[in-house]
Amino acid sequence: DKFGIQDALKRLGVQQENQGTSTGTQWLDSKEAYISSYSPADGKLIGKVQVTDRDSYELVIKKATEAFMTWRTTPAPHRGEIVRQVGDALRAHKEDLGKLVSYEMGKSYQEGLGEVQEMIDICDFAVGLSRQLYGLTMHSERPSHRMYEQWHPLGIVGIISAFNFPVAVWSWNSMIALVCGDVCVWKPSEKSPLSAIACQQIVSKVLQNNNLPEGILSLINGDYKVGEMMSKDKRVPLVSATGSTRMGKIVTQEVAGRLGRSLLELGGNNAIIITEHADLDIAIRGALFGAVGTAGQRCTTTRRLIVQGSVYEEVKMRLTNAYSKLVIGNPLDEKNHVGPLIDKDAVKMYSAAIESAQKEGGKVLVEGGVLEGEGYESGCYVKPCIIEAENHYKMVQEETFAPILYLMKYEMLEDAIAMQNGVPQGLSSAIMTMNMREAEAFLSAAGSDCGIANVNIGTSGAEIGGAFGGEKETGGGRESGSDSWKAYMRRQTNTINYSTALPLAQGIKFDI
Ligand code: UN1
């Protein structure tokens, strides 16, 4: 245990059994089987998590419904104080949780720490927000009338999260929902359940120290069948789901079938346009981290590079050179840049995508492949690769959660923008240019169609202060900063008459 995983698990309060379903501080017993969580770093079993059964799910919803009765009338700044304490608890556990995330899903330790930092940041953001949650005041058309709007909590927010950001995405949803007065039920990815157990243990102490009732922050575990309990449940007014477009389509149909709300953050197919006016030092670094960071398993990962003809050869050369310096290996070892994919299924999809792109005419520039031998025993380590391709290829149109970068050439900027937009997804995008006209055209209404559009920054690594999400098959939802909180509340318009008459709107006369 060279990296101190066992000690970290102990300090985080993660056990080997009887954890899986929690109403806050209590762990419920379930009759279901266990999910085993194996590390893609070394292939070893990290621990087991109990799958939530129907009865324990019902208890979770019962407790959540009860807790909402008191939580919704707790003053928002008091709710913010609880979130502030969660932020402090996360600070105290940053290294241990970052390490567990890194070990359980395979991103580098630095990125694991970054993920916990995102959680801390969203707590700070939510604390400030707890004294805001502003509604507007409007002018009534009737004399001695006042009109305004206020934002009320929704109730139970169901959160379904993915393995690639196993803890941060939960915190964006839950910490904002919490200050909004909602209570949360979280179903983490079945590929990273122990990181979720650790988070539950961290918040449980805060809940306990403040004598809060069970049901404010609950955890359930299992595969899509457990998620389905929430998406089909009328008692859950909002389901926020992060993951594949395939999953999102199922969830949103189930939720819409009962006219509930869903908030979706699904696949991306993010491109960087490198123009002839780019600062190539920045462009190469941005593309490199965007394409190989988290081993290509971010929804914001750079999957396509659209490069202007006159700088194409230089970009190709410098990028190939940078790729040759990448060190692949155990994500907890800080000398490595790239860790493993989440599991062997992901490796299969990676290999299949490369093969298929080649069949369609793609030319391999930096060769991929599955790594074997010492240090690679888990079978999940792959080589980041670059393929010269065309935008219309089936594989280029799809999101493969792996470090495969498709390189493409363009001549005119409008063609580059058309290529960038010419995919089913619309999450993140970027342009590398020092030319103001190009940058502004890219950001204009006729420019990028994505939820995120950057200039001289790669496609990944968004800050929590902005609204995060995207268009088209990315699902349209916005999470995290800006006014994303509105998705977790219901708006109420209030008109108050303090006159001695009852004038009707639109001047309608109705006398008897
Ligand atoms: C995700 O991949 O689901 O912008 C989220 C980023 C991170 C979040 C990614 N802050 O890359």
TrEMBL record:
The active site is at residue 265. Residues 27-493 form the Aldehyde dehydrogenase domain. InterPro entries: Ald_DH/histidinol_DH, Ald_DH_C, Ald_DH_CS_GLU, Ald_DH_N, Aldehyde_DH_dom, ALDH7A1-like. Gene3D superfamilies: Aldehyde Dehydrogenase, Chain A, domain 1, Aldehyde Dehydrogenase, Chain A, domain 2. One of its GO terms (molecular function) is aldehyde dehydrogenase (NAD+) activity. It is an enzyme of class 1 (oxidoreductase). Pfam families: Aldedh. Its EC number is 1.2.1.3. Belongs to the aldehyde dehydrogenase family. This is aldehyde dehydrogenase (NAD(+)). It comes from Indibacter alkaliphilus (strain CCUG 57479 / KCTC 22604 / LW1).
